[in-house]
Amino acid sequence: MKRTVGLLIALALAACAPAAGETTPSATQGQAIRLMLDWVPNTNHSGLFVAQDEGYFEAEGLDVEIIQPGEVYAEQAVASGAADFGISFQEQVTLAAANGVPLVSIAAILQHNTSGFASRGKLGVSSPADWEGLRYGAFGSPFEAPTLQGLMACDGGDFQQLEIVETGFTDPLALLQQEQIDLAWIFYGWQGIQAEQQGIDLDIVRMDEHFDCIPDYYTPVLITSRAVLESRPETARAFLRAASRGYTEAAADPERAAAAVLAAAPELDSALVSLSQAWISPRYQAEARRWGEQSPATWQAYADWMTENGILEGRVDMANTFTNEFLP
Q: Which of 69, 100, 108, 152 has the most beta carbons within 10 angstroms of its beta carbon?
């Protein structure tokens, strides 16, 4: 689902990379842009595919190439200048900030955390305390154990009774089906719906049911480098105008959004894309006054939680780690 470990050294090196070339607002016309996704194409990306499909990027004078991560993830690519924009997560951007890497979140793709912890239905899990005695399949993030521990403690459970099994990025649904693990962290809007579609009986403890225990955070977000914002602010504004049009349209018209995703990635299961899109479209903007809006309180509360739980060594001021300035 997510990946964290292994990025920090590369990010720290990337922080020393030279700034992007000098540009002016007039140079936006015909400008080639590289946007790196966080994962394979899915409905978190629908607004970007709508923007590309409808020519919204082109109308802003941008020639946008959407690429998938490979050996290099979006955070590294953006920090080094290999990509202009990328998709990341609040926790990744916070870690980067704590290590002096000048990444900036410029828009929240979703307003709330839609992830959750899935277990096989026959295990009878109804809350985090029921995870005692289970095996959790870990993908290697420093956030996993503190999150599990926080949720279990909040519910009166004993984290020491949960076994952590390293599984890397192996498909968690397959591992659950094969009973190699009992518990996995998934994105409900994609993997949760995929499980329902495939008839896999899962119980899911969703994060949004426990924001009183673990603060809400933005996942995913659109990022760029401080160098881009300082040297090409009009490029950032143009990019976000097009992206905002795409996500606004994706929110209003899930069928159109699903078609754009499938046009970009025809190998995907069309039924899964349609079901996922119908679920996620209302969640792009949710109660925010505009798509992409980010709250200072959300950024700081999660960073403080990271500090309190030993993920960060000290308090990190998040004021310069995100911005709403470039949203339309």
A: 108
Give phi and psi for 95, each to the nearest 5. -60, -40
pLDDT of 13 reads 40
Q: Are 226 and 80 in contact (CB under 8 A)?
A: no
Provide CB contacts within 8 A for 68, sequence distance 6+: 36, 37, 39, 40, 41
Give the DSSP per-residue string, 111-174. Answer: SS--EEEEEEGGG---SGGGGTT-EEEE-S-TTHHHHHHHHHHHTT--GGGSEEEE-TTS-HHH
Give the single-character DSSP code of 322.
B
Alpha helices in 171-232 (DSSP H): 172-177, 193-197, 226-231
> Containing H/E element for 224?
strand 221-225
**Residue pair 327/244 in contact by the 8 Å Cβ criterion:** yes
Name the residue among 83, 73, 68, 67 with its Cα closest to residue 17.
Answer: 83
pLDDT digits (tens, 9 = 90+) for 269-303: 999 999 999 999 999 999 999 999 999 999 999 99
Backbone angles phi, psi at 5, to 5 degrees: -65, 145
Q: Is residue 27 very low, low, confident or very high in pLDDT (cuts 50, 70, 90)?
A: low
Inter-CA distances, 8 with 76, 103, 301, 311, Å = 9, 12, 22, 13
Q: What is the pLDDT of residue 26?
A: 56
Question: Which residue type is seen at 214?
Answer: I
Nearest alpha-carbon partner for 190 in 294, 286, 89, 118: 118
Residue 306 has pLDDT above 50, yes or no: yes
Cα–Cα distance, 204 to 324 (Å, whole number): 33
